[in-house]
Write a structure and sequence with these properties.
Helix content is 17%, strand content 29%. A hairpin with a 2-residue loop joins strand 1 and strand 2.
């Protein structure tokens, strides 16, 4: 998936370990799901619109970067390919 933005975007992933919120800098470039699989879970895919709404309470395009009421794991990837867990 190619990311084009001047700020961060929040991608909701569905994995065999639950939902993850992948917060990516807008100028990071491409998100490689195969690399993400090595980091967080064996099975990873982008959540479907209905799943995003169920997991976050928000529709695609309006999901907050930080949603303290949801029970999804947070992941962030910076320019150095570091992964930050919370």
């Amino acid at each position: 998936m190619q990311i084009h933005a001047d700020n961060a975007t929040n991608l909701i992933l569905k994995t065999d370990r639950g939902y993850f919120s992948l917060i990516v800098s807008g100028d990071y470039g491409r998100v490689d799901l195969e690399t993400i699989k090595e980091i967080i879970a064996q099975e990873v895919r982008f959540a479907k619109p209905k799943e995003v709404e169920e997991a976050t309470g928000s529709r695609i395009g309006s999901v907050s970067l930080i949603n303290p009421t949801s029970e999804i794991h947070l992941k962030g990837i910076d320019h150095n390919d570091s992964v930050h867990c919370q």
